Amino acid sequence: GESVGLHLPTLSVQEGDNSIINCAYSNSASDYFIWYKQESGKGPQFIIDIRSNMDKRQGQRVTVLLNKTVKHLSLQIAATQPGDSAVYFCADRGNTPLVFGKGTRLSVIA
Amino acid sequence: KAGVTQTPRYLIKTRGQQVTLSCSPISGHRSVSWYQQTPGQGLQFLFEYFSETQRNKGNFPGRFSGRQFSNSRSEMNVSTLELGDSALYLCASSSQPGLNTGELFFGEGSRLTVL
């Protein structure tokens, strides 16, 4: 079946450094992806999305890159802060139902 | 405007009991989806409702059921609880169901512990 997977379950980053969280997908027809952030004890929150007609999309301190050739997307967080500590999920919105990856736990080292 | 509201936030049940969880979507949203989140399996889709109709159902046993009311509020029920049903149950709403229809807004979840 279709799947979305993150490459690393955990990532530790020094405060102030940039973070890169990767995600691979299997459905070549997928054309809309969303990144979610889930803090402890809370539900997932929308960070940024990207459609397949784009290779890159930027938000506030976050950038998502989409490589359709290798079916890979990444979330880059600039100048990582302690408040960025959370689990990050990529989700394939082009699937119904929405398919989530298992998540990468980002830990920020002060 | 108010976000997605789930009640109760925490509950403890014993094996064999049943539980009902409630979700009120964002005002104006008519699509509600339910997910089960566990450490081992991640986020797994349970059901999706739109205009009181179930549009999609995940791969869960018949003990898991849901419904949606005319005001878009949704409930899910789990009967004959098992230890493995312990999880965070998340509800998400969107203005429309289905593919590529934008962001899902999640509630804080209902954490169920089965003893």
Topology summary:
The complex is a heterodimer of chains A (110) and B (115).
Chain A: E1 4-6, E2 10-14, E3 19-25, E4 32-38, E5 45-51, E6 56-58, E7 62-67, E8 72-77, E9 86-92, E10 99-100, E11 104-109
Parallel strand pairs in A: 2-11
Antiparallel strand pairs in A: 1-3, 3-8, 4-5, 4-9, 6-7, 7-8, 9-10, 9-11
Chain B: E1 5-7, E2 10-13, E3 19-24, E4 31-38, E5 42-50, E6 53-57, E7 64-68, E8 74-78, E9 87-94, E10 105-106, E11 110-114
Parallel strand pairs in B: 2-11
Antiparallel strand pairs in B: 1-3, 3-8, 4-5, 4-9, 5-6, 7-8, 9-10, 9-11
Tell me the total number of β-strands of chain B. 11
Uncertain regions spanning at least 5 consecutive residues of chain B: none
Number of helices of chain B: 0
CA(first)-CA(last) distance of chain A? 40 Å
Secondary-structure element pattern of chain A, one letter each: EEEEEEEEEEE
- CA-based gyration radius of chain A: 13 Å
> What does the overall shape of chain B look like?
globular
Number of E strands of chain A: 11
Report the portion of residues of chain A in β strands.
over 45%
Q: Cα-atom Rg of chain B, whole angstroms? A: 13 Å
* Residue windows where pLDDT falls under 50 for at least 5 positions of chain A: none
